[in-house]
Amino acid sequence: MAIHMLPPEVASQIAAGEVIERPASVVKELIENALDAGAKAITVSVEAAGQQLVEIADDGSGIPADELALAVARHATSKLQSADDLFSITTLGFRGEALASIGSVASMTITSRPAAAAAGARLRVEGGILGRAEAAGAPVGTVVRVENLFYNVPARLKFLKAETTERRAIDTLVTRYALAYPHVRFTLRQDGRPALQTSGNGNRREVLAALYGVDVAQQMLEVIFVEEVASISGFISPTSLTRSHRREITLFVNGRPVQDSSLTAALVQGYHTLLMVGRYPVAILFIEMPPDAVDVNVHPTKAEVRFRSSDQMFSAVQRAVRRSLLAHTPVPEVGSIGQQMWAVDGGQLAVDGGRWTVDGGKLSVDGEQSPISPPSTLHALPSSPLAPPSSPFAPLLRLVGQLAATYLIAEGPDGLYLIDQHAAHERVLFEKLTGARRGAGENGLPAQSLLQPVTVELPPASARLLEEQLPILARLGFQVEPFGQATFLVRAVPQLLTGMDAAAALRVLVEDFEEDETPLQAEIEARLIARVCKRAAVKAGKTLSVEEQRALLTDLEACQSPRTCPHGRPTMIHLSVDLLERQFGRKGAR
Ligand code: ADP
Ligand code: MG
Fold first, then answer.
1. Spatial contact of 432 and 496, defined as CB atoms under 8 Å apart
2. How far from chain centre, in Å, is Cα 476?
3. Could you tell which of 18, 33, 42, 145 is best to mutate to test the pocket of ligand 1, judged by most ligand atoms within 8 Å of the CB?
4. CA 431 to chain centre
5. What is the pLDDT of residues 399-413, one digit of tens each?
6. What pLDDT digit, counting tens, does each position of 405-454 carry?
7. DSSP string, 138-164
8. Beta strand 141-147 with 107-113: parallel, antiparallel or unpaired?
């Protein structure tokens, strides 16, 4: 083929591909335009996950009628004059590409009216072809209506993810902006159903629940960090709340959502030694810094930025997280914490390998002192004497008793065993449920009706997810029905879990769901079962009767993999007679 210039429509479709990848990109660009226009209220309406319609209405500054055609031209912007301005940019847009890009891959109608104008005007662009601007009655502000996205780019259509995935991406995106701009009132409707409504009263915590659900939102720790390089605010999860992926870590830099693996790593490092391997926090951080300290023009979708002093930024994020964690260090107390990685007894604190130390009554983690002093003197335990799992089966154990209402002490053929009652019970329930599930085949697990059905309200995105999972849940013995917008009625729980908090069970089922994954059904089931068992298992801090202790040991002995919980944490620690003899100086060097 001889070299030739591409026809302008083709060139602009190619360029559009960089900016507009999926329906959520349209939503992002249009929200950013509305924010740049100083909107106080932004309403987003979406149909068919954005493929049929994305409409965004704002009450911002509006576009004068005679500038409408320019607004949709490529590289036309009101936000930048010269390249130097790039380093003093205070708007979200500056490339002048969004409207042109959207217009070339969809049917777009812009209706707008500046406050000073007596009437509004409307312009339609279809597959990059401009119509004529005409007068239109309109309130002050701008409405951009985008229909039939990618109708002229069939290749792009093919690459779109399932509608539920796209819808969820939009839910999450809008909610994150709502959190970043708490003074703006956001409304999101998907297929006519309300998916998000914020008040615009400036309260971020109120929005938090829409993003993470009530349970998680309540647990999130606030970050407030002001230093010269940057000020950082937002929310991070306590160490007890983690995910198996980094997708729930969101960073905003100067009001724009960015992906930055280095800052994400800094955030995770802030949790240094407090998280288990392969676990990540849930977090949303808003980083504010002088515009000249960050280059925002490194990516067409503006999703990446470059910092002038990236090392300083790294350390700032790390310290912000660290400080917040230390400031919120829960006062160690059996029962109220304990679930995940804490265990305290009579002033002894062990956190996953015992890296916490205490000096002069001050609790410190890796040298950084906590502003809170613990109620009693704490000692770090010696490094973990965990025995390597020698045989898959549990040794035969003789119960000695319960310690700190958290551990069972047992004697085995070769020394002492400390058993984490929660982890052990989790394992026991997991094997019982998976065993029963296998036996039940297509019939599903036997269910136990609740005396009183329980209603549970979920964040919109989770609600949708749950709706898709109802058949799987039914097979596991959960009888759940939709009951209004994002509310569900739990009628029955699996017989093996009779007595567990049904609402809590339902919430854990939808959290932390791996997006875009279509594992085998058996895998999904196993994962859901593991999650429910974790919630249902007896907590640390609960005193067990001798019969209960004994039953737990017997059940654990009967397990296929008794030495770890379904999530891979050890259920038992072995102190061998040999080790005891060394420790007591009866044998070998000290
Ligand atoms: P950019 O945001 O990078 O400038 P866009 O293509 O997104 O480029 O928008 C082009 C121009 O149209 C903007 O610079 C702005 O002047 C105007 N504009 C777009 N959307 C709005 C809106 N919602 N309210 C007011 N003006 C808008
Ligand atoms: Mg823009």
1. yes
2. 25
3. 33
4. 28
5. 999 999 999 999 987
6. 999 999 987 889 999 999 999 999 998 988 888 888 778 889 999 999 99
7. --SEEEEEEESTTTT-HHHHHH---HH
8. antiparallel
